[in-house]
Each structure stands twice: as C-alpha cells, then as structure tokens.
Design a protein that fits this description.
178 residues; mainly alpha; 6 helices; 83% helix
Length: 178
C-alpha cells in the first residue's frame, strides 16, 4: 500500500482543491479563477502517474490566457454596445464589489442575498454610474442591461473553462488508480 503522504497524492488532492478555488474565483473578483484552474493541470502533470503533452498544456494555457483577457473586455464591450459610458462601466464594477461584499453580510439579518448581489450588483451599479454621469434614464437602463449581459458572458466563459479542466482533472485522477 502506498503512503498517503506520497507527493503524487498531495499533488492530486491539491489539484482538486485548486479546481474548487478556481470555480469560486470565476464568480468572485479578486481570485483569478481561470489561471488558478489551469494550475490544477500543471499540478497533475508534475505527478509520476499523470502526464500531459506539451501541446495539450500549451493549448489549454492559450485558451486560459484568451479567456482571462476576454473577461476584462466582454463586460466593457457589453456596456458600450448598449450605449454605456465609462461611468456605467465603473459603476458596474463597483456594484459587483458591493454586491459580493455587502449584501452577503446583510444576509445574516435579511436572508441569502449573495446570488442577488453577484447578479444585481453590476446592473444596479451601471445604472447608478450612468445616472451620476448625467445619462438620461432610458439610456442608463440600456447601459445597465449591457453591463449585466457582458458580466454574465464573461462569467459563463470562465465557468465553462473551469468545468472542462475539472473534467480532465477528475478523469485523470480516476484513471491513475483504475
């Protein structure tokens, strides 16, 4: 029987933990979820039981880099596509941070607001940012909607990437033992 503290086991367990952290980071700003998920592949590649080709690691790394860049571009594009300004983009970012940090704290008293904050924060923030910038009401609503769509698109890309990497991680760990 192998020693549980064998480096391969530690790397495999670490890869699973890293995938979970990556998934959290896909939703919560401040944790680079996509690059963290990619790290799980590297952890497994460093084991004696699992090996990936250089081409596979390069392609998944390239996709990771593209999604990381797009995550910053897509919400801005969504806001601008729907007529938003820089004030709306800034408001959307502030709304996301407030929605993630403040509303869950209020959830202790008012119920579970975490998901509402994550989804509604960018929308409300973009609207408030546009209004503070002097944008008319109908244009501010359009900008808020564009910001929300851009945020959802960016988050969707990151989550899909993490699930695909998670699939490879789990599959290859299972195959390493059976």
């Amino acid at each position: 029987m192998q020693n549980f503290f064998d480096m391969d086991y530690i790397l495999m367990i670490s890869a699973i933990v890293v995938i979970i952290i990556g998934l959290i980071g896909d939703i919560i700003p401040g944790i680079p979820g996509t690059p963290v998920s990619y790290l799980a592949l590297l952890l497994l590649h460093w084991t004696d039981r699992i090996s990936y080709s250089s081409q596979f690691l390069f392609m998944t790394g390239l996709i990771c880099a593209a999604i990381t860049v797009l995550d910053y571009v897509v919400p801005v594009w969504g806001t601008k596509k729907f007529g938003g300004t820089k004030a709306g983009t800034r408001g959307s970012t502030i709304g996301l941070i407030v929605g993630i940090l403040v509303l869950p704290m209020l959830g202790i008293v008012l119920g579970p607001f975490g998901l509402i904050g994550i989804l509604g924060g960018p929308f409300v923030g973009a609207y408030i940012g546009e209004k503070m910038g002097g944008t008319p009401d109908n244009k501010a609503w359009r900008s808020a909607f564009g910001s929300f769509i851009g945020f959802l698109a960016g988050t969707f890309m990151k989550i899909v990437y993490t699930f695909v990497i998670g699939f490879y991680v789990i599959r290859d760990i299972i195959n390493a033992f059976f």
